[in-house]
Specification:
The protein is α+β, with helices and mostly antiparallel strands. It has helices at residues 27-40, 132-145, 156-161, 163-170, and strands at residues 5-6, 45-47, 57-61, 76-86, 91-97, 105-111, 113-119, 125-131, 180-181. The chain has 4 helices and 9 strands. A 5-stranded antiparallel β-sheet has the order 2-3-4-7-8, with helices on both faces. It has a two-stranded parallel ribbon with strand order 1-9. The radius of gyration is 16 Å and the shape is globular.
């Protein structure tokens, strides 16, 4: 089943997510549906808040960008309760977009080297140092768990230049090729 992606302006995207506990009902089905929804919308990552659930769950399949970024080739991760430790303070700006902010892309500064700790879907612990574009994808998706969006990392001037696009998303004046859920204030478009 394809789950709708919640768009900018929906309050669920600004809440801090709760840790996911073992025994969460139908977790295997939820993870499968998140992957299906991510593939349907042609994304490389999807966080639970983007499908309306404030739990610390992320799915990533970075393989589609593996030709451009070799560290992403073959990388598919289900992250439960992920924790990021910054290992390199230098930042690099690269373009980012987000399924919850269709039509917007901005250069976002992020560190290139992190240590990631997480539980997999069987609640087994993992730890890995991750670099390059894969580290960017992980940071982007984990930001969602903290109620942050990539536009929070850009300058005020850049946000102002995107104000019209953001207002169009909030008011439901955006078309996308995947199921979406608009902010509650948009009548008849949920």
């Amino acid at each position: 089943m394809k789950l709708p992606v919640y768009l900018y302006g929906h309050p669920v995207l600004r809440k801090i997510s709760e840790p996911l506990q073992e025994g969460y009902p139908d977790l295997e089905q939820l993870v499968a549906e998140m992957y299906d929804s991510m593939y349907e919308s042609e994304g490389v990552g999807l966080a639970a808040p983007q499908i309306g659930k404030n739990i610390r769950l992320v799915v990533i399949d970075a393989d589609p960008v593996g030709e451009s970024f070799p560290e992403c080739a073959g990388r598919k991760l289900t992250l439960i309760n992920p924790e990021i430790e910054i290992l390199d303070g230098d930042t690099i700006s690269r373009p980012e977009g987000c399924l919850s902010l269709p039509g917007i892309s901005e250069n976002v500064p992020r560190v290139e080297h992190i240590r990631l700790r997480w539980l997999d879907e069987k609640f087994q612990p993992h730890e890995e140092e991750i670099s390059g574009f894969l580290a960017r994808i992980v940071q982007h998706e984990c930001d969602h768990l903290e109620g942050k969006l990539f536009i929070d990392h850009i300058s005020g001037i850049r946000r102002q230049l995107n104000r019209g696009k953001l207002n169009n998303i909030v008011s439901g004046k955006v078309r996308v090729d995947y199921p979406v859920r608009f902010a509650p204030s948009v009548k008849g478009r949920r």
